[in-house]
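[SOLVED] Need 3D model of a two-part complex

Original post:
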Amino acid sequence: MTILETRALKKYYGQGSHQIRAVDNVDLVINEGEFIVIVGSSGSGKTTLLNLLGGLDRPTSGQVIIGGKDIFAMNNRHLTIFRRRQIGFVFQSYNLIPVLSTWENVTLPLELDAKPIDQDYLEDLLLTLNLADKKSTLPSQLSGGQQQRAAIARALATRPSIILADEPTGNLDSRSGLEVVHLLKNSVKRYHQTLVMITHNETLAQMADRRVRLEDGKIAV
Amino acid sequence: MSPILKLAYRYFSKYRIRSFSMIISIALSIFLTVVIGSLSLSVRNANVIDCKNLDGPQHVIYRDRNFNLHNFKKLKANPQVKNWAALFYYGAWVAPNGYTVNLLAADRTILYMNNTRMQAGRYPIHSGEIALEAWALQRLHLSRQLGQNIPVRLLNGTETTDYRLVGIIQDQMQTMSTGQLEAFIGFNRQNLQERATENNALNLLVEFRDQTNLNQTIKQTAAELGLKISDDTVLLNRDLLTALGQMDAVDWYLVSVALMLMLVGGMVIYSIYSISVLKRVQDYGMLRAIGSTPRQIIGIMLAEVAIIYAAGALLGIVGGGLFVQLFKGATTSMFIPAAIEADNFQLGIIMVSPFAIKLSLLIALGSLLAAITRGAWLALRVSPIAAINRVTQDDNINLASNRLEKLLSIPQRISFKNLKRNKKALFFIIIAMSAGCTLYMVESFKGVLFDHSAGNYLTVSSFWSDDFGLNVNGTTPMARGYSQAQVEELRHMSAVKHVKAMQVLYSRLKLRPDELNGLYGERYVKYMNRLEANYSGDQRTTFQARNRQRFALFDRGELVMRNTVIGLSSHDLTNLEKIMLHHTHRATRQSDLPRAILYIPRVNPQGTFKEIEGVKAQPVLNIREGDYITLTFPIQGYRRMGDNVALINDYQANKGDYADQEFVVTGVIHTLSETDQTLIGTHYGPYLYVAEHDLQRMTGFKNYRIIGIQLKHPERTADYRLVKARVDYLADLLPGTFVSDKVQFKKEVEEGHRQYMLLIGAIATILILIGGLSIYTNIYYDLISRQREFGIMRAIGLTKPQLNRMLHFEGLLYGAIAALASCIIAFIIEYAIMAYYLHLGEDPYMTGRFFIEWKSTLLVIVVNLTIGYIAALSPARQVNKTPINEAIRSVE
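Solution:
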């Protein structure tokens, strides 16, 4: 079943001869439960595409349809709430809130939604991610790998249908990186989620179900 | 342009808000310091001018009992002498309407020394010529016709001499407000020969040149004139000399204000600059990586700060110098605490204080250098690589949650935790904001406290609160005075707000020797006897002032000491007890004796009233609440309408006329309440305050001898004239009655007070502005520097309303903490002030308990919360405007 679809998605910057076509007329279909890797050279538009898929940025034109809903037809508030509930983000630089503990960072999207916290689920999640004993620890006291795992836990906390990961292993050593991707893959399989990941790492890319290559903002055939 | 200067200028113009904030902070601090310093200097200068106006520009009066006219040549030849005048007391002229006028023979320079001039005609030169002030002519019921003959009969004289009015002198406020009548006749040999007696003296009023070492010169000149230096021969114009001394003294109040301003302003600069440097740590790392030395890095900082300093200093000095000109012509009685001893005066000349400018520039420079030192340390403490990689995180975050946080929503919790994390910024915000708010609250509190105290003072001491005063002359028979009907008539005048009428009795106290307070008491008695014996003033008496014990003497083992009794209405006595005795133990001893509140003078160890620094004055008597005291008064002589002065001063000769009355002392005070303004009712002696019905019962006299009148609308000329006419009429009924007219004086005092409060308000406002700038800047930059954090939160689902609420909450939190800190600090200071005045008895008019001045407290809370809220608005807007993906990528 299609979980995410883009139709003639474009993101242009500037005008005329200086125009940059970061995403140029991209049609993409992603099925539920797939592990998709987006690859491409630097400046090919991977992050821009991922941001558009997650509603972090608005396209110049085109549509992104998630779960049958055109996300850019929503207003900002609805889009934010939709993103909060349906999409989990993992960034390259972990992007944890420095003043919140691990547990608080993980439960942050739930608390923003004023939703009750499923303690068992989250405890299980932290256990899976080897963070069970780091609940009260602040991000500055975690290693890079631990911080990224905490970020993953946060992304999975709301049980989103889609996880978007932008170079989640970029700041990690190869061993930690591999570990993180394995965790992500296992988690999405376990919770029937879809994972879209950007990576430069060929080894990690081979772990995906499908590769999407971007060149100059277009999907390369 | 050198790369250092280029970089400095680029940083200055790129970070405009920061630069502007720092410039404003410096400018405001310098502005206020210059304004306060200039006002202080102008006030001191005006104080000097005012002293010269009131007491004359002479620095000293040399009193020569030998009438040595050769001294005139010496003064003329003395290069240090700027001006001098010669004057001697010619006699007391008793006018037909009963007033006594002091006839003074002086040369024309006396007009300069009295800060007056001829209004019409000329100054008298020859014998038989006279000049008076216009108000004096009116009081004596004489016309202003020049050339008229005025018959003058001297006290104790039998002949009347005609004097021709040759000139009218411009009114002097001092003599007019005290009712002291003077007339001037020519200084010539004939007049001199008639009055050069041993009881008289030639007074030489001398003004020295500016920049003279006055202390030294005064002594040297005294020696040149052949005068032995003593309090009797060398009379210093203490007020003027003190005022002149203040001009040269360091204005410590200004220094403390400047330091406080710079502390507050300096914190703004310090924190802004620290943030600024932290944001450029990468830049500095890169500069160092490519070869810049630390010295060059510091050079960039110095250059940047130099631009800010120059701009701020220029704005501050020019602004301050211009602003202070607005106070030209202002009337002030308590403008600057440093000049608080000065009386009411007008700021005719505004002087911009070079000291204030230098001080403010120096302290501003200090603040900036401190900021640079911190900035340099921040920029240079890490290696270039670490700086480039921004490895500057502080790992020591310990943010354990508490119960309060659990009650907050997650965005609020984040704000709260960030607050705890940024303790330094919070500390600075609190201090910066608290300084201004605390000062404002404390000054408001003091204003209310002192208003209350002043109100109490004016309730028990009507002399300064009354618009008009009538004080029957001490020589008028005690059986005479103003009747109840006359007092009621005054009360019923539509223009009159309040009339206070008091009885007076000149009497003596019979004391046991042990009731004298040791050496203080003994020396006091000697001093007073000497003082009274030397006085040759009021000569409406047959009593010869040769008696060396007219003030106090021993009789049959008892010390019989002069005193004055004031009879108050029940209402006024109750007020007096309530206000003056609140802090003392009131006597509860059961007694049928009439009650009295006793005023005991306090003296220095020499037994005089001169204030000696570091030495606390002590009471002259050992009498306590609950003690009995015996009053003795020449009632028979008073009933006979005898000579009051002789009756009261020559105790031995008139003992037979005296009767005794015992009182129980219900309270002892050391600050005078109501007083008799005549010489017999000396302020230096003890006073008894009793119920008027007791006084009436003792003496049989029902008249009033002191009346104080307050107008409803003193600013209304018609009302003023109406009441003045009535007062003058009443004064004429009892010749010699002193009349005081303080309407104009009170207007100026009130205006001065209003302007003082305005100035305090301006100081507090500017401090609050500087503090507000600090809180705004700190909050602004704290929030802006967390763009990435906010971006993350928005990415994971923080809506715009949630974000706004979070930022506003954080702003309000800062504001609330600053408000709380301000209130706590202010309350502590206020309590200390109240304790000092109330419990240490420093202000006898201070009553009541500690209170919170709600108006200023609420205003401070509102201001802090408002600034906190406003400070978050712009960052909220900016954060919302920035696209999420951009925010996430932003470098903190």
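Edit: The longest helix of chain A spans residues 174-190.
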